[in-house]
Design brief:
178 residues; mainly alpha; 64% helix; flat
Length: 178
């Protein structure tokens, strides 16, 4: 009797899970492929990240004095990213690999200068943070190595060259639990 009940339950679980998996959500798998964020979207996302960083740090009155320089540098970086996105969307495609390389080098130089400005602005604030705030700063500002573009790939952890099959110590350690 128990074997029959157990077998029936297992069969229903397997059949039900395959039906749920096979069912497509609204718009199907291609629903996000057509969406491209506008410059306004990118600006709004930047504002949200800055607000999240500020709220997450829970600064003291003394630490708050160093925040405006950091916020200004973050806004400059977000503005530069938004402008770069808009310019890339309206520009013609580079004609060859050397032109692509030159454009990329110019963009990296500009981003490097903005990051240097951010590092200089964030230095005094970071030095005044306690250990918990420093940890939150790294996580909220996405400064940890695991979140870097080099490690996660262009399309995130799970797609198109990301590190989806590599564990914490590299490919030899297997998939990382999610």
């Amino acid at each position: 009797m128990w074997k029959t009940v157990l077998a029936g339950t297992a069969a229903l679980a397997i059949a039900g899970s395959s039906l749920v998996y096979a069912q497509q959500g609204p718009g199907g798998p291609d629903r996000m492929r057509g969406w491209h964020p506008s410059a306004e979207d990118i600006s709004a996302f930047g504002d949200a990240r800055i607000a999240a960083l500020h709220a997450g740090l829970k600064l003291t009155a003394e630490q708050e004095k160093n925040w405006p320089a950091v916020e200004s540098a973050l806004r400059d970086l977000a503005k530069q990213r938004s402008e770069r996105f808009a310019a890339r969307a309206s520009a013609d495609q580079p004609k060859d690999a050397v032109e692509r390389l030159t454009l990329r080098a110019d963009a990296m130089t500009q981003r490097g200068a903005a990051l240097k400005k951010l590092a200089e602005a964030a230095g005094p604030l970071y030095k005044s943070l306690d250990e918990g705030q420093k940890h939150r700063f790294v996580m909220l500002a996405r400064l940890n190595d695991r979140q870097s573009m080099n490690e996660r790939g262009r399309h995130g952890h799970r797609g198109m060259g990301g590190w989806m099959h590599r564990g914490p110590g590299g490919p030899e350690r297997g998939p990382q639990p999610q």
